[in-house]
Design brief:
118 residues, mainly alpha
Length: 118
């Protein structure tokens, strides 16, 4: 029961981060799923993606109702995102867990340092 509470509270934090910043929920979800749920790297990444999809759909509706979406930017960017998503999912299946962790945490470290340098 305690594990479910921790996962639900962690899920709420992921939702808040994703809704507030428009992204980043997956970056938070992966460590939560790894440490709190005990999933291995590949399962944590795949599960995070499955969690983020409905979350992004909800956020999209909220942003669209507020007329905060730039339709001219959306379609060409979405095409690239879809292609990149397919390539990333294929790569996830082929990468070893240590390589995946190195890339993921390296990206998080790089992004954090870059943000602090601004």
């Amino acid at each position: 029961k305690a594990r479910r509470i921790v996962l639900a509270l962690s899920g709420a934090a992921v939702g808040i981060v994703n809704g507030l910043f428009g992204a980043g929920g997956g970056m938070l979800a992966v460590p939560v799923l790894t440490f709190a749920a005990g999933l291995n790297g590949k399962k944590a990444h795949a599960t995070a993606i499955a969690l983020i999809l409905p979350l992004c759909l909800v956020s999209t509706v909220v942003y669209a109702l507020g007329a905060d979406i730039d339709a001219g930017t959306l379609l060409p960017t979405a095409a690239g995102v879809l292609a990149g998503g397919v390539l990333g999912a294929v790569a996830l299946k082929k990468l070893s867990v240590p390589a995946l962790n190195f890339l993921f945490y390296g990206l998080m470290l790089f992004a954090g340092i870059k943000m602090m340098m601004r």
